[in-house]
Amino acid sequence: MRHRAHEVLQPRALLAAYAHGAFPMDDPAHPGGPVEFYEADPRAVIPVDGFRTPRSVARAVRRGEYEVRVDTAVREVLEACAVRRRDGTWLSPRLVDAYEALHMAGHCHTVECWRDGRLAGGLFGVALGGLFTSESMFHRAPDAGNVALWATARRLAERDYVLWDIQMATEHTARFGAELVDRGEYLRRLARALAVRRAFAP
What is the CATH code of the structural domain delimited by 41-194? Predict the structure, then answer.
């Protein structure tokens, strides 16, 4: 089992899964078992050209409390997103290691909000062609996670990304324009996204 899990969490195998519309999640009740991959149907996406900025978030951006950085504290962001919740977390230590390796391969990126020299919030995701997937986010200060989401939207628009996948919608992401598409539509959008080359970070 361990060998199999190691294999499927290698960067090449993970990217192949994302290219087919699947994403990994560990079972918090059985963290040492096989790594499972899922395809949400319907799938939640945020249109790159249809991102909505709630008024409270716009005010937070205008206040300029946070400095936005990209890929400067990848491990810290991953570990902050993996902090155990009451019902456990899908982002197990072996997945944290896998996403860090994916970052070293150039495909996992973090968008971070800093204040007074400390990491206050952020998110991480996977970039492949014109696809960006938001995997998880966290905040340690008010609106820090929301500002990171806003900054991600700006970056994706500026760099002409095709598809922003957030996998599953929540009431929170609906405020920013998240919408649901069926599996067939998602796969069509995914194919278009994978057909182009984009760079999330230099």
Answer: 3.40.630.70
Per DSSP, helices labelled H in 11-73 are 11-19, 55-63
Could you give the CA distance from residue 66 to residue 76 in angstroms, rounded to a whole number? Answer: 17
pLDDT digits (tens, 9 = 90+) for 78-109: 999 998 665 568 999 999 999 999 999 999 99
43-45 and 163-167: which strand pairing? Answer: antiparallel
Stated as kind and residue range, the H or E segment containing 122 is strand 118-128
181 and 45 Cβ atoms separated by less than 8 Å: yes
Gap between the Cα atoms of 162 and 133, Å rounded: 11
Domain segments of the chain: what residues? 41-194
Residue at token pair 């696809």: 131
DSSP string, 84-106: --TT--S--HHHHHHHHHHHHTT
- Partners of residue 70 on adjacent β-strands: 111
Q: Which residues of 116-145 are buried (b: 16+ CB within 10 A; e: fewer)?
A: eeebbbbbbbbbbbbbbbbbbbbbebebbb
pTM for the model stands at 0.93
Residue 56 scores a pLDDT above 90: yes
Cβ-defined contacts of 20-24 (< 8 Å, 24+): 21/183, 21/186, 21/187, 21/190, 23/133, 23/135, 23/167, 24/95, 24/98
What 3-state class would DSSP assign to 148? Answer: helix
